[in-house]
Design goal:
17 strands, D-amino Acid Aminotransferase, Chain A, domain 1, Dna Ligase, domain 1, 10 helices, seven-stranded mixed β-sheet, alpha+beta
C-alpha cells in the first residue's frame, strides 16, 4: 500500500473548488493500492486533515506528518490545488527537491501554462491561432482608447495568472474598462486584454495512460451568463456542459484532438490536462490550458472521463499509477 498525499486548498480564489476536488479524489482512490491523506496547504501552515476531524501539522523539512504517535511518510502526491501554489509550479519545485513524485505537470511546465501571456506566446509560435491581445503590468500607464482602437469591443480583461475565471471581466463599452482593469490587478500584477471571438467554447481533456495519450470526448460549454465565469463554472444551473459535444463535424473533432495531443507533448505536460478553445465558422482559437483542471463532482473533466467509459475509480487509478511508471 502506497501513501498518497492529496494536497488541496492553496492561496487563491479557487480554494473551495480545490477542497471539493480533493474530497472526490480521496473518495475515489483505489483502496486496495493507496491510502489517501488530505493535506491542506495554507500560507500560515500545512495540516493533515484526519478522518476523525483532527489536524496535524506537516513537517515542511521532509513533508512528513506526526499523527497518533507515528510518522506518516508519503510515496507520492496527488496535486488537487487549482491556482497558486499548486498549478503555477511553486509547490512542485518543493516536491522535486524532496524527490517525491506528483500527478501534475512539472514545475517549469506548470509555471509556463499558468501564465497566459507566456503560454500564448509559446503556443502561437507553432502557428496556432490565438486571440489578439495586449498585456500590461501594474506599473504601466494604460490608455483605454488605445486598447479599444487595437482590439475593438467587447474585450476580455483577465489576470495573467489565475484560474476558474477569477478576476475576469467581459467589457462591452469603454466606461467599464477602468473597473475591469482594477478587478484584474487585484488578482495579479500583470493583466491580459483579449479581443472577443464569437464562437463555440470547446474543451478537450488529455491524460497519460502509461506511455499512451488518451484524448477524452470533447465538451461544449454554453454559458447562461455573459461568459463561462466563476459562477457559471460551478453552478450547473448557469451553464450547459454538453459531453460529447454535438453537431461537431468529424474532421473538426479530429483536428481539435490532434492539436490537443500535439500541445500536450510540446508543452511537456503530465497527468491530465484540459485545453480550452473557441471554434468559429472559419478557425479554431486556443484560449488556455489547465494543468490542474477541476475534478469536483460538478467539474468537466470527470464528466469527460465518464463519457469515455472510465469509472471515476479507473480514471484516478490511471492518474496515480502514471506518476510511478512514467
Amino acid at each position: 500500500m502506497k501513501n498518497i498525499a492529496i494536497v488541496c486548498g492553496g492561496y487563491s480564489g479557487e480554494f473551495e473548488i480545490s477542497m471539493q476536488s480533493a474530497a472526490l479524489v480521496k473518495k475515489s482512490l483505489n483502496k486496495q493500492k493507496y491510502n489517501g491523506f488530505l493535506i491542506l496547504i495554507e500560507k500560515e501552515e500545512w495540516h493533515y486533515l484526519a478522518n476523525d476531524g483532527s489536524k496535524s501539522v506537516v513537517n515542511k523539512s521532509d513533508f512528513t506528518v506526526s499523527h497518533n504517535n507515528s510518522i506518516i511518510r508519503f510515496d507520492g502526491v496527488f496535486n488537487a490545488i487549482h491556482g497558486t501554489p499548486g498549478e503555477d509550479g511553486k509547490l512542485l519545485g518543493y516536491f522535486d527537491m524532496l524527490q517525491i513524485p506528483y500527478t501534475s505537470s512539472s514545475a517549469d511546465t506548470s509555471a509556463l501554462t499558468f501564465n497566459k501571456f507566456h503560454c500564448n506566446a509559446f503556443v502561437s509560435s507553432y502557428g496556432v491561432n490565438i486571440a489578439k491581445s495586449l498585456s500590461f503590468s501594474r506599473s504601466e500607464s494604460i490608455d483605454n482608447k488605445f486598447i479599444i482602437e487595437k482590439l475593438g469591443l467587447p474585450v476580455f480583461v483577465k489576470p495573467v495568472r489565475s484560474g476558474s475565471s477569477v478576476g475576469v471581466t467581459k467589457v462591452k463599452n469603454i466606461e467599464q474598462l477602468s473597473e475591469a482593469l482594477s478587478i484584474a490587478f487585484k488578482v495579479d500584477s500583470r493583466i491580459l486584454i483579449e479581443e472577443f471571438i464569437d464562437g463555440r467554447e470547446i474543451d478537450c481533456g488529455v491524460l497519460k495512460d502509461g506511455k499512451q495519450l488518451v484524448v477524452l470526448p470533447l465538451t461544449e460549454i454554453i454559458s447562461k451568463n455573459e461568459f463561462f465565469d466563476f459562477e457559471a463554472k460551478y453552478d450547473s444551473r448557469l451553464a450547459d456542459e454538453i459531453c460529447p459535444a454535438e453537431n461537431m463535424p468529424e474532421e473538426v473533432e479530429d483536428d481539435i484532438k490532434a492539436l490537443s495531443s500535439f500541445l500536450f507533448n510540446q508543452l511537456d505536460c503530465s497527468g491530465f490536462v484540459r485545453f480550452d478553445y473557441i471554434l468559429t465558422n472559419d478557425n479554431l482559437y486556443f484560449i488556455e490550458v489547465n494543468s490542474v483542471p477541476g475534478i469536483s463532482e460538478t467539474s468537466i473533466m470527470p464528466k469527460m472521463a465518464k463519457a469515455y467509459g472510465y469509472s471515476l475509480e479507473e480514471f484516478f487509478d490511471i492518474i496515480v499509477d502514471a506518476m510511478f511508471t512514467n
